[in-house]
Amino acid sequence: VSIEKFIENIPKTELHLHIEGTFEPELMFEIAKRNQKKIPFNSVAELKSAYKFNNLQEFLDIYYAGANVLIKEQDFYDLTWAYLTKVHEQNVVHVEIFFDPQTHTDRGVSFDTVIKGIHSALEDGKERLGITYKLIMSFLRHLDEASAFKTLEQSLPYKDWISGVGLDSSEVGNPPSKFEEVFKKSRKEGFLTVAHAGEEGPATYIWEALELLQVTRIDHGNRCLEDNKLVKQLASSQMPLTLCPLSNLELKVVSNLKEHPIVKMMAENLLVTVNSDDPAYFGGYMNENYIGIANALDLSKEQIAELVKNSFIASWLPKQEKEKRI
Ligand code: ADE
Ligand code: ZN
């Protein structure tokens, strides 16, 4: 079979996905209309033409604006359900997804509304599509630590629905050290931790995520390659990196997929995984990300299979579940 068919057919898991980043323009217009919210674009085509980014911040500005039309529990359900049906068609069997509570609570939408909608779609996805899941609550790093603490408080009644906490949004100038205390409290409450680090920010942010936040995975981590000692540390500990090739291309973290560091990282024995990040904005879900790097970097089926296996290893599935699926 062709490499494309091989990628499409192999059962996959996704570990770095922002549910707000799956908001397709068609659904955005539909939900805006029923909530009588205005979008500053006249059509789906006009909105899509605004998806041209020079850096992370230009993307985030549009991503937060899009999320503004999400108001009701049903909106969060529909958003999550659309993602699940989409990745089901792509043979994704397990997902560990982020949501950004503060993007919604700061607009007056309650934490309950957001999590109930997302959780019920995830439960339906498990039952009807056979997709298992973990949910990760991500703190916005451009806001202060007090706001993250407040969010942590709000999440406690829903602790059983949330497996971990993460850290996302504008990276440069907002190092992991800013959130050391709230991550400490989160771990005490039983949450696993991850953090975006080394996407635009320096390798020192990756060190901080490891040492101060005690993460179980690094989201992105591209810039680890600037620090040999860090590469050695990540390799020897088999610390997973959740890479997002099309995101890196669209946010100009790499100038061309042929320059994507994934092969170099595999050669360094790093535990790298392929993910979509914000597929509605970056032009592709899981299969498109795998196919993009496979073609640009001339990857073999064995290399693809290894990447897929890495994702199951890096997942938070219990050990026996992992072994069944590898
Ligand atoms: N929020 C959504 N996508 C993100 C990314 N790639 N980096 C940081 N924050 C994000
Ligand atoms: Zn991300």
Automatic annotation (TrEMBL):
Organism: Aquimarina amphilecti
Keyword annotations of the record: Hydrolase, Metal-binding, Nucleotide metabolism, Zinc
Membership in a protein family: Belongs to the metallo-dependent hydrolases superfamily. Adenosine and AMP deaminases family. Adenine deaminase type 2 subfamily.
NCBIfam families from the UniProt entry: aden_deam, PRK09358.1-6
Molecular functions (GO terms): adenine deaminase activity; zinc ion binding
Active site residues per record: E199 (proton donor)
EC number: 3.5.4.2
Protein name: Adenine deaminase
Cofactor note: Binds 1 zinc ion per subunit.
